Amino acid sequence: MSDNAYRLQMQNGPEPGRSYELQGDSLTIGRYPLADIVIDDPDVGYRHALLTRQGATYRIADLGCDAGTYVNGRRVGAEPVALAPGDVILLGARLSAAFLSAGPVIIDQIMEQAADDAPPAEPPVEAENGESGAMVDEEPWATPALAPLAAEVRSPIHPEPLPAMPPPPPKRTNRLAWITAGCLLMLLACCCASSLFMYFIAGDWLLNLLRSL
């Protein structure tokens, strides 16, 4: 890849994050299916903008789209405007793309700039004994004022055993139910005895009485 290779990376729209490698001296951006960079979005014109190669970079010009073309917030007209790596191109009211360099020279410069902007590392903290980075193995409560509290925290807690639960009281027998059941049984027995008496003994007597009449 050459040092002057560039790409256009979409930041939003139908395909956010997609990159278009810029190859050629003239590239058309728009919704036109035969455009060099096709962006199917209603905010993008049919033939929206034109990228032209000039020297080591590209320039962009608006192709008369009503939605407009902007570079870093400034509107671009028919006169081409030179682009630099990192510029943000706005197509219409909301669709934006970043003009980025894919060359190794620019990447090295970005890495060097990030290293320069990084905060310096903090020096190691020296302990009282003069050793660098020595850790002081001291408990935070190892002071006379907090010694009783430390002893209380360290001592295991043995809770007293709970008293045994008393046995459940015995269930009271429902005497009324037993008395009722006994009465019903006695009544049933009386009915059965009366029926037997009437069938075997009183039946013949009543029959003879009726015949005599």
From TrEMBL:
Listed Gene3D superfamilies: 2.60.200.20
Q: Which keywords has UniProt assigned to this entry?
A: Membrane, Transmembrane, Transmembrane helix
Q: Where is the FHA domain?
A: 27-76
Transmembrane residues, as ranges? 176-202
User: Which SMART domains does the UniProt record give?
Assistant: FHA (SM00240)
Give the signal peptide range.
none
Q: Which top-level group of life is the source organism from?
A: Bacteria
Question: What SUPFAM superfamilies would the database entry show?
Answer: SMAD/FHA domain
Question: Which InterPro entries does this chain map to?
Answer: FHA_dom (IPR000253), SMAD_FHA_dom_sf (IPR008984)
Q: State the protein's name.
A: FHA domain-containing protein
